[in-house]
Specification:
The complex is a heterodimer of chains A (879) and B (115). Chain A has 879 residues and is of the alpha+beta class. Helix content of chain A is 53%, strand content 15%. Chain A has four domains: 71 residues, no CATH class; 191 residues, no CATH class; 304 residues, no CATH class; 187 residues, no CATH class. In chain A, helix 6 packs across helix 15 and helix 15 packs antiparallel against helix 16. Chain B is an alpha+beta fold. Chain B has one domain: Arc Repressor Mutant, subunit A. In chain B, 65% of the residues lie in helices and 14% in strands. In chain B, strands 1-3-2 form a three-stranded antiparallel beta sheet. In chain B, helix 1 crosses helix 3 and helix 1 packs across helix 4. Chain B is elongated, with a radius of gyration of 17 Å. Classes of the chains: A alpha+beta (879), B alpha+beta (115). At the A-B interface, helix 1, helix 2 and helix 4 of A face helix 2, helix 3 and strand 3 of B.
């Protein structure tokens, strides 16, 4: 009660501060007057009476401080006072403050951006779905290590048996051709189980979702849910869309609802626009047997763990269920187990690769931020030293150590938080930039990164941590100040520059590590472009078609390809044309398949694998890959020739020890093939990959529903686009040609994910170098300023200015070299151990330290030279 | 160092309360004089320390203050004990006597008493 009353009174007093000050002043005056009168009566002189009275009263300021402490909420008042003071003192150093705030903002902004990516993959793998991190992948897993997906019947069995999971949902990704004849558009959708939307806990933007009974019996419910973006783009957000008919794969489906705004399906980072009941599969996909055939594993399953179940329980149930299925249906399920997997470890998609890269990136960027902190600490320390006098006055007037520390702290905190604020703004910009980045490939991709509560908290935490880190040194330094020494105002105090020098060394070392990382990254990115892909991408146009909506048989696929190729080859500008199932340097990679080849016995366990691509005759001509031995494939409609394969030279070297390959037989799951030729090796998945063994199959033997058209022209390849479209329309008016791009565009697009961090480093590298230079410059010029007298003395005694300069540079450079060396070794160890696995980029490891050291030398030289120019007489007289 | 001031502050508050209890409303100087007279040199050095204590007591509601005229007809702040202050004085007096008694007994205890 008492303390509450006191608190309330205090609060009131804080408000009525001025009146209170006045009252105290008056009371003190009265007290002193009375005491003085008393002393006068005791016979003292007027002056002495007054002096004695004041002595007796004691320190007025200290008492006032106590009084204020008693009266108001000292903490809040001090804080406000400190804040005012901080604002004032920051506005007195706009240049320095700008450097600090900006560098912190960049450091924090970059870190926050990266965290938002990590967060997207780890915590919010399903944008728009509440509590998405609780969902797990339910993946059948073969003995051979593959994740083939689940069949519909398998899903129905699992749905009732996995009790640890609330609602298992199934989805299959399907490209649809949407629209009227002659103007169809390829749009990606998912065939989904009836519980899909309810299990995800979604609410429709308008209309309703698919009901469970609508995905029970095959082909009865022609309903479709569209994405919010699709609704906006195609129907301009009109509410009347519900009930409208949408032609999909030549069937009319009724739009029943629109998904919520951010929802993009359940296969990050793919972005889907349409959702159709799985039971519509046979009707939409030309009578596919997806729903009856246990060997067609087209569905992906996910499920949310029940709150009272553990992951282990779910795994056990899954394994048991799969074992039972393997006993019941051996022909489809033998050797297929099951695995419960987190989203970020998804066997398909780029998550796994991304999360590793992002973790490294985040580490490097935290180091960068740390270096920025070191730099800021140094700048503040140098600045703090010029404020020794001010602080000494404060101490002499009775400010406690903690007041000094809190003064420095509040100033730095304000800087740090301003930096964090700006950093958040940069992160918002960065994440939005990534979000809108058009990634229209064969599959539409969208990363919905954003700055939310967590990332915001992270940014503020970083800001506070930075503030604390770079406050520590100056605060300790100033609080330890002896006011007497400082007030004497001379530079007689021994220069306490150890802390500064250590900081400088640390900062340079950290800068070294980050700069080397940046350089390695850029180097690998640049060399990626310079490496000869060993095929000729210039002059090649790529375009895709997909017959999956027709559920075609092999014969019609073959015929379609033959007709299309004949039509394309008749175009005047086309030098050569071919169709292949895969394009090198694709974001999604080219599959490697197991095989056995005549004349090779594998001794180690496992299977031989090679990259496989299925191509039509003429492919090697279009790609500019020479055949070293043998001939091209037989024509598509040649019915006589046996099944054929062409291998590359790496295949011959690795699996046949360079022996004659032509004439041998190669066996895969698809059948047996005769090797008829050897092609030169090329780049398949990445520019800097080691040589890969590859096998090409003939489209004639293994026709496919999807095809990548390759056209070579001597003129401008991009100009071929409309002719290619027209050609396909001639062959089949209902089929859209999609993903038309030149080969160069294809390559650029697939370097996209590497380009983001590369660009980041292009900006951050020089920035860090600049910061390091500013830091060194500040330290050296401060140290030099303190030694003006000494330098003057030495010059007076006949030292040449050259000598003085050299000595100053030597002193500082030795610290810098130490820092650099330690950073260099650290970077080397990390690089050899973790990143390049033994390969060292000599250019980077020599070039970066050379640049850093020359910049550092320059940063030392400028203030040193200025110092050596002083007039010795002036310097000596100054004291 | 700090502890000693704490003790001093606590006892000072008690002295202020008792002074006001005995002498009725007084201004700061009067209180200081009175405590000085009784306690000898305890407050001789820093009379100023009295004012934070007065303020605290006032905030706690143990004393109240208003402007009045001093002996030489100048404006002065007069402090008086409130009902609550009187209660507090009684309580603290009892506490103090108890504490003093306990401490006193400890000092009287001799080694032979414990054996």
């Amino acid at each position: 009660m008492k303390s509450l009353r006191r608190f309330l009174n205090r609060l009131f007093n804080s408000a009525a501060r001025r009146a209170q000050e006045e009252r105290l002043r008056e009371e003190i005056a009265e007290h002193l007057a009375l005491q003085t009168e008393e002393n006068l009566r005791a016979g003292l002189s007027a002056v002495e009476a007054r002096r004695q009275a004041m002595l007796k009263f004691g320190g007025v300021e200290a008492m006032k401080q106590d009084y204020r402490a008693e009266r108001g909420l000292l903490f809040i008042e001090n804080l406000l006072g400190d804040l005012r003071n901080a604002v004032r003192s920051i506005s007195r150093m706009p240049g320095l403050a700008a450097v600090i705030i900006l560098s912190l903002a960049i450091g924090i902004g970059v870190n926050t951006t990266i965290l938002s990516w990590i967060q997207l993959i780890l915590l919010e793998p399903l944008p728009g779905v509440p509590g998405a991190s609780n969902f797990l992948l339910v993946e059948p897993h073969t003995d051979t290590g593959g994740y083939p997906g689940a069949s519909w019947l398998e899903y129905r069995a699992l749905q009732t048996q996995l009790l640890a999971l609330r609602d298992v949902v199934a989805s299959e990704m399907v490209p649809f051709n949407v629209g009227e004849k002659g103007q169809t558009e390829r749009t990606h959708g998912q065939l989904v189980s009836g519980n899909y939307f309810s299990a995800l806990g979604l609410k429709p933007a308008i209309g309703r979702f698919i009901r469970p009974e609508e995905a029970e019996r095959p082909g009865t419910e022609p309903v479709i849910v569209i994405s919010y973006d699709y609704w906006q783009a195609r129907f301009r957000g009109a509410p009347g869309v519900v009930g409208q008919k949408l032609p999909v794969n030549e069937r009319e489906l009724i739009v029943i609802g629109v998904a919520p705004k951010e929802f993009q399906g359940t296969m990050l980072p793919l972005k889907f626009e349409l959702w159709v009941p799985a039971t519509m599969a046979p009707a939409l996909l030309g009578g596919t047997r997806d729903l009856e055939d246990r060997s067609i594993r087209a569905f992906s399953l996910i499920g949310m763990l029940r709150s009272d179940a553990t992951r282990e329980e779910a795994q056990t149930e899954f394994s048991t269920a799969m074992a039972q299925l393997a006993r019941d249906y051996p022909e489809a399920n033998a050797g297929v187990g099951g695995e419960i997997i987190s989203f970020w470890k998804a066997p398909r998609g780029p998550q796994r690769m991304l999360i590793g890269g992002l973790a490294v990136l985040q580490g490097v960027m935290l180091l960068l931020l740390f270096a920025v902190c070191g730099n800021t600490a140094n700048l503040m320390l140098a600045r703090g030293s010029t404020r020794q006098h001010e602080m000494a006055v404060r101490v002499a007037l009775g400010a406690g150590r903690w007041r000094i520390v809190s003064l420095v702290l509040s100033e730095n905190m304000l800087l740090a938080l301003l930096g964090a604020g700006l950093g958040v703004a940069m992160a918002v910009w960065g994440t939005t930039a990534l979000r809108v980045a058009p990634l229209i490939g064969a599959f539409p991709i969208q990363f919905q990164t954003k700055v939310d509560g967590l990332t915001l908290a992270f940014a503020i935490l970083l800001g506070v941590a930075c503030g604390l880190i770079f406050s520590a040194a100056p605060a300790v330094h100033l609080a330890r100040l002896d006011p007497q020494d400082a007030l004497r105002g001379s530079s007689n105090t021994p220069p306490r520059s150890r802390a500064r020098k250590v900081l400088m060394g640390v900062e340079v070392g950290l800068a070294m590590v980050v700069l080397i990382a940046a350089a390695l990254f850029l180097q690998s990115f640049r060399s990626a472009r310079q490496i000869d892909p060993r095929f000729k991408p210039e002059g090649v146009l790529l375009a895709s078609y997909d017959l999956s909506g027709r559920n075609p048989d092999e014969k019609s696929e073959r015929e379609f390809a033959a007709r299309l190729l004949a039509r394309l080859r008749s175009l005047p500008d086309v030098e050569a044309a071919a169709i292949a199932t895969n394009v090198p340097l694709d974001l999604h990679g080219i599959p490697a398949r197991p095989f056995t080849v005549q004349g090779r016995v594998r001794t180690e366990p496992g299977q031989d694998r090679a990259i496989t691509n299925t191509v039509t005759p003429g492919y090697f001509k279009v790609m500019g890959i020479p055949l070293l031995e043998g001939n091209d494939f037989a024509g598509i409609e040649d019915k006589a020739a046996p099944a054929q394969a062409i291998v590359n030279e790496e295949f011959v070297r690795r699996y046949l020890n360079g022996a004659e390959a032509v004439g041998r037989r190669i066996q895969t799951r698809a059948g047996s093939f005769a090797i008829i030729g050897v092609a030169r090796k090329a780049v398949y998945n990445a520019f800097d990959e080691p040589a890969q063994p590859a096998v090409y199959f003939s489209y004639r033997d293994l026709p496919a529903m999807q095809g990548e058209i390759h056209l070579r022209t001597s003129s401008n390849e991009a100009a071929l686009t409309s002719e290619a479209r027209a050609a396909l329309r001639d062959v089949d008016p209902m089929l859209p040609l999609y993903d038309v791009r030149t080969f160069s565009q294809h390559i650029e697009r697939n370097l996209y994910l590497r380009r983001i961090p590369a660009r980041m480093f292009v900006v951050l590298g020089p920035l860090l170098l600049g910061l390091a230079a500013i830091g060194i410059y500040a330290v050296v010029s401060y140290a030099v300023a303190r030694r003006t007298k000494e330098i003057g003395l030495r010059l007076a005694f006949g030292a040449t200015s050259r000598r003085v300069v050299l000595q100053i540079i030597r002193e500082n450079l030795s610290v810098i070299i130490w820092g650099t060396a330690i950073g260099w070794v650290l970077a080397l160890v990390i690089c050899v151990r973790a990143i390049t696995k033994g390969v060292v980029d000599v250019l980077v490891f020599i070039g970066v330290p050379a640049i850093l050291l020359s910049v550092a030398t320059l940063a030392c030289w400028i203030p040193a030279r200025r110092a050596s120019r002083i007039d010795p007489m002036a310097a000596l007289r100054r004291e | 160092m700090k502890q000693k001031t704490d003790v001093l502050q606590g006892t000072l508050a008690l002295m202020v309360l008792k002074t006001l209890d005995v002498l009725g409303p007084l201004h700061g100087y009067g209180i200081a004089r009175r405590i000085e007279q009784i306690s000898g040199d305890l407050l001789a050095v820093n009379q100023g320390t009295l004012y934070p204590v007065l303020l605290r007591l006032e905030l706690e509601g143990a004393i109240a203050s208003e402007w009045g005229a001093s002996e030489n007809n100048r404006r002065a702040r007069f402090y008086r004990l409130t009902r609550e202050g009187r209660k507090q004085l009684q309580v603290e007096r009892k506490d103090w006597e108890q504490t003093a008694a306990i401490i006193g007994r400890f000092f009287e205890v001799k080694t032979e008493d414990l054996s």
